[in-house]
Amino acid sequence: xxxxxxxxxxxxxxxxxxxxxxxxxxxxxxxxxxxxxxxxxxxxxxxxxxxxxxxxxxxxxxxxxxxxxxxxxxxxxxxxxxxxxxxxxxxxxxxxxxxxxxxxxxxxxxxxxx
Length: 114
Hints:
The chain is α+β, with helices and mostly antiparallel strands. Helix content is 36%, strand content 20%.
């Protein structure tokens, strides 16, 4: 799916390529054998013109292997658990630092969270 890309567009209004005034759709038809819509338009001055609208193709698609999302979530959960464990060890090390007065860097090194 894509969006429609009309020929002349000013904001959301279609304008006449000759005089720049607003236009109205007189007739809409699908072009046979093509994914294109042809619109016959007329402006307030009486100028008539056609616009052809087609779906824009996506600029790029990313294909993922099956199970990619699940593997990514497992990896993130493991990283979260490691971070939580490291945070708990740091908190315990800070408490021990307060109780013993030992330098914080040494306590962190002893707990393996330096």
